[in-house]
Structure formats: C-alpha cells, structure tokens
Amino acid sequence: MKKIAVTFLLTALLITTGAAALPAAAVEDTGITINVYNWGEYISTGDDGLMDVNEEFYNRTGIRVNYTTFDTNESLYTKLKSGGGNYDVIIPSDYMIGKMAAEGMLEELDPANIPNAALIGDAYRSKPFDPQNKYSVAYTWGLVCIVYNRTMVDEGDLEQGWGILWDEKYAGQVLMFNNRQAAGQFHQPRLRAGDRAGGRKAERAEIRGPELCDGRGVRQNGRRRGRAGAVLHRRRHDHDAG
Fold first, then answer.
1. How far apart are CA 219 and CA 232, in angstroms?
2. 30, CA 20 to 30 Å: which among 95, 106, 155, 227?
3. Three-state secondary structure along the chain?
4. What is the pTM of this model?
C-alpha cells in the first residue's frame, strides 16, 4: 500500500485561495498531477458562481489536481487501507490522522515544502494525534454546535443543551452527520449522568453543550459568531484537522 505523502493541508491551494483577487500570470503545463482526497463541499468547485479552486490552482502553477471527495473518515480509511486509491494529499479529521500514522499509512511532511505552515499559531500545533507535527498541518478549525429552525423549536427547550437531541418532542426531526467520534462525545456525558443519577433519573439529567446557534448566528459565551442554517442539526466540528 502506498503511503500518503501529505496529510491535512494542500499548501499551494490555500495560497491560491488567499490570493484570489490578484491577477494570475499564465503558467505552462508542468505535466504534474497531484491526487487530493477531501471532504465534500470543503472547497469551491465553481458551481456556486465562485472560484473553481482546483482550476485556479492549475492556472497559477501548471499542476493539475485530480480531486475526489469522501463523506466520512471511516470511508476514507477503508478505501485507503484496502488499496482502493493512491493519494498525495488527504484531509481527514484529527483522530483519523493518529490512527493512520500509527498504522504506517502516512509519510512524514517535509517542512521545506510548506513554508507558510510556520504562520500557523501554536494553539494548532503538537496535538495529541500528531504531537511532533510529523504528519499533519492544521487545515481548518471549528466548533460543534446545534443549529435549529426557530419556527420549529421552542427556544426554552434549548436550556437542555445537548439533551435536546433526546427530546421526544423532536423525534424524527433531528439530523446528524455520520461521525462516530462526535456521536460518542455526545453520549459520554449522558452515560456519566446515568452512572451518577442511577438509570431513570438519567433521562432527566441536564446535559449542556458549549454552543447553541440559531438562524441569526452562533451563540458562544453570550456572543454570536457566524451564520447558521435553518434545520435542527449539528454543524461539523472541523478541527479537520478537516
């Protein structure tokens, strides 16, 4: 099985994205193609009227991008473990990097090839899944939250925090993305509450999450950040480290 050459960050793509407003000089085709495996809808492909990042990358470097996407960390892992694909760059979430590194599936990074990585803050380096920064560079970061439709959710119910996901009033109306790590994190406080409260009381245990967000933006520590959608669901945390 071929090891993945780089994990987490396609540096040149980020450089191109950051310089989107600048005119690009014509570059000859280098005959080089890099294979990138990323989450769906992580970069613009031009369908939304914005820049096609891969095409612009080619225009500026002469290097073509063979770009494919996956929907879960586990599907990425299964495909690569079974030899179903060879990639130069992959963008999994944090825990999957640690797993793949431990199994010898990743190659070490060459810092000389990614000089702009030096600009990344210390808070995003030396994480437990890659303590020596051998295999990964932070690509993006975010927070887990609940997004809700204000016409469908009683705002008083939000006092339950994560417990609202188990509120029978919203049975059949909750959407979650397929991520077993995140699902496990939601269940852990509930299970701990069950251990403390003893069975039936656990059903009433209050489980508060770090954030709630509505259509007007994300609430965090009394402030709002960003924008949110209109259906009750979880937004992906992307310490993707995805």
1. 15
2. 106
3. CCCECEECCCHHHHHHHHCCCCCCCCCCCCCCEEEEEEECCCCCECCCCCCEHHHHHHHHHCCEEEEEEECCHHHHHHHHHCCCCCCCEECCCHHHHHHHHHCCCECCCCHHHCHHHHHCCHHHCCECCECCCCCECCCCCCCCEEECCCCCCCHHHHHHEHHHHHCHHHCCCCECCCCHHHHHHHHHHHHHHHHHHCHHHHHHCCECCCCEEECCEEEECCEEECCCCCCCEEECCCCCCC
4. 0.64
Nearest to 76 by CA among 101, 57, 93, 62: 93
Tens-digit pLDDT profile for residues 182-239: 676 666 666 665 555 444 444 443 434 444 444 343 333 333 333 222 233 333 344 4
Report yes or no: 76 and 96 within 8 Å, Cβ to Cβ: yes
> Per residue in 48-94, pLDDT tens?
788 999 999 999 999 999 999 998 899 999 999 999 888 999 999 88
- Write the CB contacts of 188 (distance below 8 Å, at least 6 apart in sequence): none
* Distance, first Cα to last Cα, the chain: 23
